[in-house]
Specification:
The protein is built from one helix and two strands, in the order αββ. Helices cover 23% and strands 18% of the residues. By secondary structure, the protein is an alpha+beta fold. The chain has a two-stranded antiparallel sheet with strand order 1-2.
């Protein structure tokens, strides 16, 4: 399987999981937001991409 196809498959799988999955940089920036498809439990997390975790919670909880 070519690397592009593998990446596409991985993104597709991650986007179908019911719970949200976040990739966060060391500085607290949301790099990717996957999943969270269970809308009765979670809001869409996609708008968080590019923002910093410290915008949403104090450092002692992040």
């Amino acid at each position: 399987m070519h690397q592009e196809n593998l990446a596409e498959l991985l993104y597709s799988l991650l986007n179908t999981i019911p719970d949200p999955f976040f990739v966060i940089a060391e500085d607290g920036t949301y790099l990717e937001v996957f999943g969270g498809t269970e809308r009765s439990l979670y809001d869409d997390g996609k708008p968080m991409k590019g923002q910093n975790i410290y915008e949403f919670m104090p450092k002692e909880f992040a």
